[in-house]
UniProtKB/TrEMBL annotation:
Biased composition (Basic and acidic residues): 56-69
Feature: compositional bias, Low complexity: 38-51, 70-84, 91-125
Region annotated Disordered, chain positions: 32-128
UniProt protein name: Uncharacterized protein
Length: 309
């Protein structure tokens, strides 16, 4: 049987043609698919180096269930760390300074401060000599002055009748004593003009009740009563009269004592707390005074205690 070349090569050529067409189509499809993937890659942001790209949502596994964080950890994460010291509570109040004991030797402080003291605002007008003469002419000073005059007169009389040769010496001595007493009284009167008169004790000065002995003590002639209102501390002060120099005195807590105020009815009071400004007053006899701790000034101070009617 004779097979012609057409019958042999025809199917072969057809198969070759079909294979070439399918390869061309697959190449075009491959090229189009690569172009689409390149376009998607260009539009999607690139993942930084060192990081792993997140898988697609379709292939992502379901999230695992974890326990909630502890309350303390959550609070510490929510609240910022404290900076500095917490401000004090408005309910907390600063305690006032407590009463403290002052210097025992108040007399030396008073003597050193005398020359620098200025005349008090409530002192009587006039020179020191006029004030001294007014003090000597007061009813309180008259008995002392008359006593010295009587002594001088008696000495002169005795000298002229009994001992005439000694009359001159006795008169000179009596005159010297009288002049010395007068000079001392003048000096004290001059110093008194530099001291203030204490104000009356007010309610806002101190909330402490007066000691019981303050209202029951009976004052003697020429004395002053002074009470220490504090419950804990002893207070020191100095007093000076017309016939004595500065002397140290003190009062224990809640104590009341009587002090002599001299012959003319007035005496001087000095008190200093630490290195603060001192207080100095002129006191009158047969009066009661209160020493208390002034919390606003942080010093000991003196007031005239008003008596109940």
């Amino acid at each position: 049987m004779n097979i012609s070349p057409c019958h042999v090569y025809g199917p072969l050529l057809l198969a070759i043609l079909l294979t070439g067409c399918s390869g061309q189509e697959s190449g075009q499809a491959t090229e189009s698919t690569a172009a689409v993937m390149a376009a998607q890659t260009a539009s999607t942001p690139s993942t930084p180096a060192g990081t792993v790209a997140e898988p697609d949502a379709s292939h992502r596994a379901a999230p695992e269930m974890h326990d909630e964080p502890a309350p303390q950890a959550a609070m510490s994460a929510a609240q910022p760390a404290p900076t500095g010291t917490a401000p004090p509570s408005p309910e907390e109040s600063v305690a006032p300074p407590a009463a403290q004991a002052n210097q025992p030797d108040q007399a030396s402080l008073a003597r050193q401060a005398e020359p620098a003291l200025k005349p008090a605002a409530n002192a009587a007008a006039g020179t020191d000599k006029q004030n001294a003469m007014a003090t000597l002419a007061s009813p309180h000073a008259t008995p002392q002055q008359l006593a010295h005059a009587a002594m001088a007169s008696h000495a002169i009389t005795q000298a002229s009748t009994v001992h005439p040769p000694r009359a001159t010496s006795q008169v000179t001595h009596a005159s010297t004593v009288l002049n010395a007493q007068s000079a001392k009284a003048q000096k004290f009167a001059s110093l008194m003009t530099r001291f203030h008169r204490p104000a009356a004790l007010a309610r806002y000065d101190t909330l402490v009740a007066p000691p019981p002995t303050m209202t029951t003590m009976s004052l003697k002639m020429g004395g002053v009563g002074i009470s220490n209102f504090d419950d804990v501390a002893r207070v020191n002060f100095a007093l000076k009269t017309s016939d004595s120099d500065w002397t140290n005195n003190y009062l224990d807590p809640r104590d009341t004592r009587e002090f002599g105020c001299g012959l003319i009815g007035d005496c001087l009071f000095w008190m200093q707390t630490g290195d603060r400004t001192p207080v100095y007053y002129a006191m009158h006899h047969e009066q009661r005074y209160a020493i208390f701790w002034d919390q606003n000034k942080a010093i000991w101070d003196l007031r005239l205690a008003v008596q109940d009617p």
